[in-house]
Design a protein that fits this description.
This protein is mostly helical. The protein contains 7 helices and no strands. The protein has a single domain, classed as Orthogonal Bundle (N-utilizing Substance Protein B Homolog, Chain A). It is globular and about 40 Å long.
Length: 143
């Protein structure tokens, strides 16, 4: 497994904890998270970047997921799936150096690993809808 996959998995684990426990101070929560989940420094740096960016853009990301998750109550989505979607949608909307198909593929694989058998299909379907709305190439970084 690669550095970025490890970082994404750690980011989703943190976002899940954040979603279920709502710590007041993100930096303190991150320090405690890394104390319990030892990863190489470069994994931590990329994961922290993703985590802080996703949390900063959480209102926009959640609004996009709500809009596209037809017939699904956002709060009733499985917490793991919700946070996998949050990270991938954040990457697709705000990280132009990451090709959207990379974000989608990573999210699908992580959903298969951490969630239910059907989660990969659900995540793929919703993220494909996000991809169709993007005004940039799906298979390459922007710029």
């Amino acid at each position: 497994m690669g550095l970025r996959r490890d970082a994404r998995e750690a980011a989703i684990q943190f976002l899940y904890q954040f979603d279920t426990h709502k710590p007041v101070k993100v930096d303190e929560a991150l320090a405690a998270f890394w104390k319990q989940n030892e990863e190489p420094k470069n994994v931590q740096v990329f994961a922290n970047d993703l985590i802080k960016g996703a949390l900063e853009k959480l209102p926009e990301v959640d609004a996009k997921i709500r809009t596209l998750a037809d017939n699904w109550d956002f709060e009733r989505l499985a917490a793991v799936d919700r946070n996998i979607l949050r990270l991938a949608v954040y990457e697709m909307l705000f990280r132009s150096e990451i090709p959207p198909v990379v974000s989608i593929n990573e999210a699908i694989e992580i959903a298969k690993k951490f969630s239910t058998a059907e989660s990969g299909k659900f995540v793929n379907g919703l993220l494909d809808r996000v991809k169709k709305e993007l005004l940039r190439p799906a298979r390459q970084a922007a710029g």
